[in-house]
From TrEMBL:
<dbReference type="InterPro" id="IPR012674">
    <property type="entry name" value="Calycin"/>
</dbReference>
<dbReference type="InterPro" id="IPR002446">
    <property type="entry name" value="Lipocalin_bac"/>
</dbReference>
<feature type="signal peptide">
    <location>
        <begin position="1"/>
        <end position="17"/>
    </location>
</feature>
<dbReference type="InterPro" id="IPR022272">
    <property type="entry name" value="Lipocalin_CS"/>
</dbReference>
<keyword id="KW-0449">Lipoprotein</keyword>
<dbReference type="InterPro" id="IPR022271">
    <property type="entry name" value="Lipocalin_ApoD"/>
</dbReference>
<dbReference type="InterPro" id="IPR047202">
    <property type="entry name" value="Lipocalin_Blc-like_dom"/>
</dbReference>
<dbReference type="GO" id="GO:0006950">
    <property type="term" value="P:response to stress"/>
</dbReference>
<comment type="similarity">
    <text>Belongs to the calycin superfamily. Lipocalin family.</text>
</comment>
<dbReference type="Pfam" id="PF08212">
    <property type="entry name" value="Lipocalin_2"/>
</dbReference>
<dbReference type="InterPro" id="IPR000566">
    <property type="entry name" value="Lipocln_cytosolic_FA-bd_dom"/>
</dbReference>
<protein>
    <submittedName>
        <fullName>Outer membrane lipoprotein Blc</fullName>
    </submittedName>
</protein>
<feature type="domain" description="Lipocalin/cytosolic fatty-acid binding">
    <location>
        <begin position="35"/>
        <end position="175"/>
    </location>
</feature>
<keyword id="KW-0732">Signal</keyword>
Length: 180
């Protein structure tokens, strides 16, 4: 056992150093200059995302944001499980601004007391799309006010994401219901 502990410590230290190495080689993640939270509220359709355990089997995913009287934001995420006709799953949380100079850096909590970074890194001039990332670049969502996005806009967003150090090959498109 005495020989096993140093081995485990060495393996853990190597794993941590390897994961931090990529962080030091990358430039810091840029956010948008300013977010008008009132314009940002409402419903967004998920266009694509990095796969995450908590979104497994989700389709038709939406996020709805509502300003609260205390300055925080209600967050309601919904998706259909396995198909667009599947069971509706809902997760409710809240967000708080951590950078009031820009309102672009927020934290979101679905399981208090745990908070996760939610950074708005790209935003349409008319708030028609938004891109949400994380400083580690392990999380990424492309959102739209409509359930679909033009290929030209999507490709332009992907180019800006690559410039920010994101691996756009990891993105998975989200199935959304067609609108008439």
């Amino acid at each position: 056992m005495k020989r096993l502990i140093p081995l485990l410590v060495a393996l853990f230290s190597t794993a941590c150093a390897g994961s931090l190495k990529g962080q030091h080689e990358r430039a810091p993640l840029d956010t948008v200059d300013h977010v008008d939270l009132e314009r940002y509220t409402g419903t967004w359709y998920e266009i694509s995302h990095y796969p995450q355990r908590f979104q497994r089997n989700c389709t038709g995913t939406t996020a709805t944001y509502e300003l609260r009287p205390d300055g925080q934001i209600n967050v309601i995420n919904r998706c259909r499980k396995r198909s667009l006709d599947g069971r509706l799953a809902t997760a409710k949380g809240r967000a708080r601004v951590v950078d009031p100079a820009t309102n672009a850096k927020l934290e979101v909590s679905f399981f208090r007391p745990f908070w996760g970074d939610y950074w708005i890194i790209d935003l349409g001039p008319d708030y028609e799309y938004a891109v949400v990332g994380h400083p580690t670049r392990e999380y990424l969502w492309i959102l739209s006010r409509e359930p679909s996005m033009s290929p030209e806009l999507y490709d332009a967003i992907l180019e800006r994401l690559r410039d920010q150090g994101y691996d756009t090959d990891r993105l998975v498109k989200t199935l959304q219901a067609k609108t008439e």
